[in-house]
Amino acid sequence: MKKLLLGDEAIAQGAIDAGLSGVYAYPGTPSTEITEYIQGNAVARERGLHSRWCTNEKTAMEAALGMSYAGKRALVCMKHVGMNVCADAFVNSAITGVKGGLIVLAADDPSMHSSQNEQDSRFYAKFALVPCLEPSNQQEAYDMMSYGFDLSERLGEPIVMRIVTRLAHSRAAVEVAEAKAEKPLSPATDAWVLLPGIARRKYVALLEKQVAMRQASEDSPFNKVETSASKTGIVACGIAYNYVKEAVGDDADLVKVSQYPLPEEKIKALAARCDELLVIEDGQPVVEEMVKGLLGAGYPVKGRLTGDLPRTGELTPDSVAKALGKAAGAAFAPAKNMAARPPQLCQGCGNGPLRHTLLNGRLISPRRGVPPGRPGPQAQGVRSQGSTCQDHDHSRRDQHPTEQGGDGPMPECSDLDLSRFRFFRRDDENARLIPVVRPKLRPGFLGGVQIFHGPLPVQGFPDPLQFFGQGAVDLIRAEKSFSQLQLQLLRRHFV
User: Fold this and answer.
1) Which of 109, 219, 225, 349 is the Cys-Cys partner for 345 at CB 3.0 to 4.6 Å?
2) What are phi and psi of 352, to 5 degrees?
3) pLDDT in tens, 5-24
4) DSSP state, 342?
5) Judging by beta carbons within 10 Å of its beta carbon (0-12, 13-18, 19+), is residue 46 exposed, middle or buried?
6) In this prediction, what percent of the chain has a pLDDT beyond 70?
7) DSSP letter at 411?
8) SS (H, E, C) 155-220
9) Closest residue by Cα to residue 110 from 161, 160, 162, 166
10) 132 bridge partner residues
11) Angle value at C-alpha 85, between 419 and 349, nearest 5 degrees
């Protein structure tokens, strides 16, 4: 049976059909639709599959590991910058190993359509010494879920699956199979504790698995060779394979790479029959650097580093065609009467009313310095509510230099994020416990809901979704006179 699916939906359907028992995620474009699809899927509901939006990517990774240790198949989803957040648990999971199949889905965002950077998640797979899958189309994305779970269980290691925005958010017909049954509960008896003695032994075991990982890549059905009389060999990674086929059709001598470690023998054979190689990959020049190291400085390898492809931004059919010496196809001229359409907040989001509350109450102003903010919805109002926005749970540590130019205390952001509650503290000598704040009003911009760092009355804080308008302004001003330390336990709402 065929279904018309987004890349994200193909991954979700593939996971369900592969016997998934639980998905754990932190929402972030372009990965969000994976978990949403599983939550609305009839088979997933009938089976009672665990589906959780977690506080952050680290807690999602840890929850998925727990399910894997119990012998069940688990999926953890995040966008590329989420790999930074879960790196502690992720890198160590390669050393502990897994039991039930575990796939770590990282959705990269070349061109930064909704992100802070263009980092490439393949680096994390290489760093952790685990395999990585990179589908070139929606059908491969579906098929790779079953394949990836099997590979994870065979190697006893987590598998990274890396996709990009264009694959995640485009649709194609996908041939789906019958759903497999879930794996039975079979808690592992091995030691999952990385005490130094255990960690040393397990790290040696991880290194010994590298031979099997490289062989799996050489034998992978997703890494294939196509030959022609061309003297320029092509290494096409993931979605780039589609752009190559669009530009030159079957007239290409290439190696398609969709599973890592790099299939070195295939690439050496390609180099032996060609005069030069062109590495085409969507993202950072991960493979280009590896191929240069594999073939040595004397062999010409072209790509993003040499300027044959753009150094920044996502690939396009036109940029690939140009690199291959082909004329770009005819394109429509850009419209001249289109109004600017900046990113919009979700309907019902509390960020907009909060921004107006702060401005109308004169609680923030340009004269008071540079208030930091947190990426996500908070960044949409950056021009009027937060002037710095660097990373998740961006903290007050960047306030010290900017605070000197203002006429009052700077707004601040959360320094710690635990569970579904937010605990706020000040990172100074007055902070004896995590949920402690100094008696000074410092509004900040956080995830989920907008909360103010500052003194609160004993009776607690009002419902954040009702915390707007003149009443909010009056409440904030009244709190300025409250001079005791306060414990704040705040509910987090998802609109």
Assistant:
1) 349
2) -65, -55
3) 999 999 999 999 999 999 99
4) -
5) exposed
6) 68
7) P
8) HCCCEEEEEEHHHHCCEEEEECCCCCCCCCCCCCCCCCCCCHHHHHHHHHHHHHCHHHHHHHHHHC
9) 166
10) 160, 260
11) 60
Q: Beta strands of 344-433 (E only): which ranges?
A: 372-373, 388-389
- Residue 404: C-alpha distances to residues 311, 331, 488 (Å): 38, 52, 28
Tokens of residue 371, six digits: 């208030």
* Residue 176 token pair: 């789906």
What's the rounded Cα separation, in Å, for the pair 246 and 487? 60
**CB environment 362-396: b (16+ within 10 A), e (fewer):** ebbeeebbbbbbbbbbbbbbbeebbbebeebbbbb
What are the tens digits of pLDDT across the range 100-126?
A: 999 999 999 998 988 889 999 999 999
Query: What angle, rounded to 10 degrees, do the helices at 210-219 and 196-208 form?
Result: 30
Strand partners, 79: 107
Q: What phi and psi values does residue 277 have, to the nearest 5 degrees?
A: -120, 140
User: Which whole-number Å values give the CA distances from 409 to 207, 259, 366, 424, 439, in the listed order?
Assistant: 52, 52, 13, 17, 12
Which pair of tokens denotes residue 412?
């601040």
Q: Where do we find the tokens 């999602």?
A: 60
Q: Give the pLDDT confidence of 138-148 residue by residue, as tens digits.
A: 999 999 999 99
Phi, psi values for residue 119, rounded to 5°: -60, 150
How far apart are the two ends of the chain, measured CA to CA in Å? 36
Token code pair at residue 433 = 């416990």
Q: State CA 444 to chain mean position distance.
A: 24
pLDDT of residue 485: 57
Bridge partners for 443 per DSSP: 452
Widest CA span in the chain: 80
pTM score: 0.78
C-alpha distance from residue 360 to each of 197, 261, 326, 410, 468 (Å):
60, 56, 57, 17, 11
Query: Which of the four pLDDT bands, split at 50, 70 and 90, describes residue 66?
Result: very high
Dihedral angle at the C-alpha atoms of 3, 7, 13, 16, nearest 10 degrees? 170
Query: What is the distance between the alpha carbons of residues 160 and 417, in angstroms, rounded to a whole number?
Result: 25
Tell me the residue ranges of DSSP E strands in 240-282: 253-257, 259-260, 276-280
